[in-house]
Write a structure and sequence with these properties.
heterodimer; A: 240 residues; mainly beta; Protocatechuate 3,4-Dioxygenase, subunit A; 5-stranded mixed beta sheet; 2 helices; globular; B: 208 residues; 9-stranded mixed beta sheet; 3 helices; Intradiol_RC_Dioxygenase (chain B); Protocatechuate 3,4-dioxygenase subunit alpha (chain B); protocatechuate 3,4-dioxygenase activity (chain B); oxidoreductase (chain B); dioxygenase (chain B)
């Protein structure tokens, strides 16, 4: 049996661990190099999820925490596809999202920003991709919010996105930004990504074709996970 | 110009931030929304093998506990089988064994723990058996891309000595950073596995 492997992570498209403009990274970044490991069974497998793990409203953030009515804010649909580096859709994989409300306030015991909590908005959702890797959810566009980094730093509007893929090596957490937001180029967290072209791949364009007239705008966000690589010849025999 | 390779590039990682619990563990964020939160039960009720607890603290470069870390673990069952179609023995895994868990520390102390079964050895590359281990993935505010590491068991000395991954760590004393120490507490094995992100005793992190 040929070893089944993933394309090694190109660390050049990802933020390095130590990015002093984002202050918390200074004491939370390893100083020693990572140990490179070729994939074994422990890496090419990973958890699997099914519809039975999810509830019917899990991908509808407008409804999944509604208590007395709809949440306040700009109604949007976010849709896209989870692909691998070979361009193939990643089917039946779990996508989880979380975000602040329209005013930039998170429903979290540790968030003390004075913008109010929205009683009808929880701020999290999850969805499984379909057979071709497509997913969609419905939500409220999040607001920008301030954070204690520089004295006047503000996060751009963003949605946190977590994806599993089909192997533990594909596990990824990232953030989706919105087209045209002037805070993106000023954000120390967005700036941890060294290549501006790579950052652009986290900015979701407005997608009027997917908007629902008189109801919701739409943004499109594709996510690329690591792909598998082919080894066409293998000189090293099993057991050697 | 040569032809171009048409591979896509992986989406860049970003930090999970301080409020990661909202999405991945809303109960810890302080509210209830999903009927069932994922990753709460790693082994399930039917798995064979020794029931163990694993606990530890993640510390930063100043020695302070990282209280807002979120850990995920992935492991084989007691016979070294993963519940995943790529494992040739996956059909033999006990029903309800997920092999995957999500762990949140205590927000005051930073201490985390989880219950599972001790995994068996897993077939590694080129037919070499790997010592029993649990794969860890850590995300938090200040961590730009999830950190991978492995937990090995202190009471598996012979297997650890032969493990092909531990053997790759050039500075032999650093291998200890991946080995959890066993303590028997009220008749049950508890393994202590502290993770040091930076500085003295820095844990070995993997590029997998």
């Amino acid at each position: 049996m040929k070893p089944f492997e993933y394309i090694p992570r190109d660390r050049g498209v990802h933020p390095p661990a130590y990015t002093p403009g984002y202050k918390t990274s200074v004491a939370r970044s390893p100083r020693l190099p990572l140990l490179s490991l070729q994939n074994s069974l422990s890496e090419i497998t990973g958890p699997t999820f099914g519809q039975g793990d999810l509830g019917p409203l899990d991908n509808d953030l407008i409804r999944n925490y509604a208590k007395t009515g709809d949440p306040v804010g700009e109604r949007i649909v976010v849709h896209g596809r989870v692909l691998d580096e070979n361009g193939r859709g990643v089917p039946h994989t779990l996508v989880e999202v979380w975000q602040a409300n329209a005013g930039g306030r998170y429903r979290h015991v540790k968030d003390t920003y004075f913008a109010p909590i929205d009683p009808n908005f929880g701020g999290c959702g999850r969805v499984l991709t379909d057979e071709q890797g497509f997913y969609h959810f419905r939500t409220i566009k999040p607001g920008a919010y301030p954070w204690r980094n520089g004295v006047n730093d503000w996060r751009p509007a963003h949605i946190h996105v977590s994806v599993f893929g089909q192997a533990f090596v594909q596990r990824l957490i990232t953030q989706m930004y919105f087209e045209g937001d002037p805070l993106i180029p000023r954000c120390p967290i967005a700036a941890t990504i060294p290549d501006p072209k790579a950052l652009e791949r986290l900015i979701a364009p407005l997608d009027l074709n997917a908007a629902i007239p008189l109801d919701c705008l739409a943004y499109k966000f594709d996510i690329v996970l690591r792909g598998t690589r082919s080894t066409l010849f293998e000189n090293r025999l099993e057991g050697n | 110009m040569p032809q171009t390779l048409d591979y896509l590039k992986e989406s860049p990682s970003q930090t999970a931030g301080p409020y990661v619990h909202i999405g991945l563990a809303p109960g810890a964020a302080g509210f209830s929304i999903f009927e069932r939160e994922l990753g709460q039960d790693i082994a399930g009720p039917n798995a064979e093998g020794e029931r163990i607890r694993v606990e530890g603290v993640v510390t930063d470069g100043t020695g302070a506990p990282v209280k807002d870390v979120l850990l995920e673990v992935w492991q084989a069952d007691d016979e070294g089988r993963h519940p995943h179609p790529r494992d040739p023995r996956h059909a033999e895994v006990a029903e309800g064994f997920r092999g995957w868990g999500r762990i949140i520390p205590d927000f005051e102390t930073g201490l985390w723990s989880f219950d599972t079964v001790k995994p068996g050895p897993v077939m590694g590359r080129h037919g070499r058996l790997m010592a029993p281990h649990i794969t860890f993935w850590l995300v938090a505010r200040g961590i730009n891309i999830g950190l991978n590491t492995r937990l090995y068991f202190g009471d598996e000395e012979a297997a650890n000595a032969a493990d092909p991954v531990l053997g790759l760590i050039e500075q032999v004393h650093r291998r200890r950073t991946l080995i959890a120490t066993r303590e028997d507490r009220e008749g049950r094995a508890v393994y202590r596995f502290d993770i040091r992100l930076q500085g003295e005793g820095e844990t070995v992190f993997l590029d997998i």
